[in-house]
Amino acid sequence: MSTSGSTSKITRRTALAGLSAGAALLAMPRLGRAADETIRIGFPTPLTGPFAAEARDQVKCAELAVKLVNDKGGIGGRKVELLVRDDKLNAGEAATRTLELIEKDKVHAVVGALSSAVQLAVNEVTRARGVIYVSISQSDTINEAKDFSKYTFHEALNPHMTTAAVARQALKKGMKVAHLVADYAYGHEMLRGFKRAQAAIGADNVGEILHPFGAADYSTFMPRLMSMRPDVLCISNFGRDQANAIKQAVDFGVKQQMKIVVPVILHNQRLAVGPDVFEGVVGGANYYWGLEAQSKSAGAFNAAFKAANGGAIPTDYGAYGYSGVGSLLAAMQTAGGTDTDKVIDALEKLQYDLTKGPQHYRKCDHQSVQSVLVLESKKKAAMANDNDLFAILANDTGSDDMLRSCSELGHAT
Amino acid sequence: MDLSLIIMQLLSGIALGAVLVITGLGLTIVFGMLGVVNFAHGALFMIGAYAGLYLASLTGSFWWGLLLAPVLIGAFGMLIEFVLIRRLYGRSIDDPLLLTFGLSYILVEGVRIVFGSDGIPFPTPPQLIGVLDLGIGFFPRYRLFVIALVAVVLLVLWLTLEKTRIGLIVRAGARDPTIMQVLGVDIGRVWLAIFGLGVGLAALGGVLAGPMRSVNPEMGSLVLAEAFVVTVIGGLGSIVGAVVAGLMVGISISMVALFAPEMATIVMFALMAVVLLIRPQGLFGVRGRTA
Question: Which residue ranges traverse the bilayer (chain B) (predicted)?
């Protein structure tokens, strides 16, 4: 009896504490906004359209990065707020939303975008307004002198890095390589990266086919690709295009004749078409949850994500959302606030390790120097559980040598 | 360029065209007989793919999914006609157009809520996995099956319309519904059946496309555009037109892919523009007809 009485007492007390904490939580954002104390981060991403699955993971992880900072009392006592906007995978839409975020919502910095063309549009706006932008979309051009500004940071891998790492694993001297490429910035940059890596290794190019972005049917490209008789087929496209292209290539019996290689192998697309289709496909990645076997940071990130998302695991593009927002917040922490120049300075000096090992932004072009994973999709029989998608073939430690040199990108050295 | 490659390319085009024929046919029948421009056609194609996948996993067989999904979604189409579209007959053509446009949003969003916005794998039936050696190259068994099945469906449809009493009523109803009513035919029931048939064909297209593409809530939007192109090229309301135009578009896409692959999507719109310039009513359309 007495035990149950004391339990109920504690419960009541806990409930009271909970209530007051809740009231404080409710009151805080109001106070914050009134005093303009909240730190606001704009986050445009394509929540609708063919990259929706990846975009949603980005949002979940970005929210996690914000939550972890807020749980520890925010930055200099200021709470952080994430303002997510749907860019609809459209450059014009992204530019409008970004402008709105800056002018109307008065964000202190922008992180996000998934498509390479869209991030360039966001970058145009942030650069003109002098707002920091941390891009988490794969691109080579954003670091080149013509698109770069001191406000531009690039947390994602770039095509040059991934294609080089993948080519090192999958290509050998004298191999014949054919390309199926999405006809837009991402595809073109990946193709350029592969051809450069190919030339260095001594593999031969036997043909390239450009396909329209967002195509649903790839069957019409297959007879010609087969007739090129390559040893390796590089498929450089993204999102559902990757799933559809690989599926239809497999239907045409491509895998019996050649190996399928992709610059970036996508977690969600592998889930969308199943293990049999992806079996043996090799591709690069910024992150894979299975890295926790070799990396403490990955283990901690997985655990935090699982706790916040009912036991789910974080995906590759999700990790970008986490490290993009996380690195920015870490720099704001060092800078003691949101003063743009101080935060830029802090970002340039920042050494961070959020998901997979040490990373830093290179001074000349603000590209994040980081490790590159090369993964191979497992066959169904080899999967230990539903999340066991890939085997890690390589984990190349990040170094400046992986990047094109500052002078090649047109920066003063 | 060797001949075998061109033949393989032609075959890819026919397989691609087969699905276009089925979806274009559903759209054109409904327009020709009911005067309804069905903007939910793409969404119903997508619903068909999901229904096929769901029924296949429920029964453990792709074949049940292929058989039942078009019937079930066709019945759903009849419900849509009975509850919603029926009220708009006799009004301007914009009204059912807007209604079905809104309906497509509801259907897509509904699927997103129930099945999520990620794609779902639709496995190829085990009997049709792999490629067939045609002597000049390899071609996926499943795509050959699609060509054959579409040919059978077309034959059955043609026989029904041309050789049976029901077909006679349907054709007469399309010409002059008033006379049919005077003759004592319940034209409302004919329209109900036609709308159901159109939707059923969309669903059949969805199930057939499922194993070739990943199944996702947005898969119908491109299909709707393609179906409209086929309908416009073939002539609004013309069944023969839909068949010819569907194959023409499929083969054009495939042949252009051989020489200028990046133009593969644009070619069908170019083809449509040319047809509209030379023959505004479409290849098999009747001039001045507004249904």
Answer: 6-29, 36-56, 62-85, 97-115, 142-161, 190-210, 222-249, 256-278
What is the β-pairing status of strands A372-377 and A282-285?
antiparallel
Q: What is the pLDDT of residue A15?
A: 55
B118 has a chain A CB within 8 A of its CB: yes
* Structural domain span for residue A382: 160-285+372-402
Question: Do residue A272 and residue B212 have CB atoms under 8 angstroms apart?
Answer: no
The partner residues of A111 in beta bridges, in order of sequence, read A134
What are the tens digits of pLDDT across the range A17-28?
Answer: 555 555 555 545
* Domain match, A245 and A298 both: no
Query: What pLDDT score was predicted for residue A280?
Result: 96
Q: Does B12 touch chain A (CB under 8 A)?
A: yes
Confidence category of residue B92, pLDDT binned at 50, 70, 90: confident
* Domains held by chain A: number: 3
Average pLDDT, chain B: 90
- Give A300-341 as a DSSP string: HHHHHHHHHTTTPPP-HHHHHHHHHHHHHHHHHHHHTS--HH
pLDDT higher than threshold 90 for residue A50 = no
How far apart are the CA of B258 and the nearest CA of chain A, in angstroms?
7
Is residue A359 a part of any domain in this protein?
yes
Is A345 in a helix, a strand, or coil? helix
For residue A62, give how far its alpha carbon lies from the nearest alpha carbon of chain B (Å). 19
CATH number at residue A174: 3.40.50.2300
Do A98 and A150 lie in one domain? The reply is yes
Domain ranges of chain B: 17-217
Share of chain A above pLDDT 90, in %: 79
CB B190 within 8 A of CB B4: no
A220 and A146 in a common domain: no
Judgement on whether residues A43 and A176 belong to the same structural domain of the protein: no
ipTM: 0.86
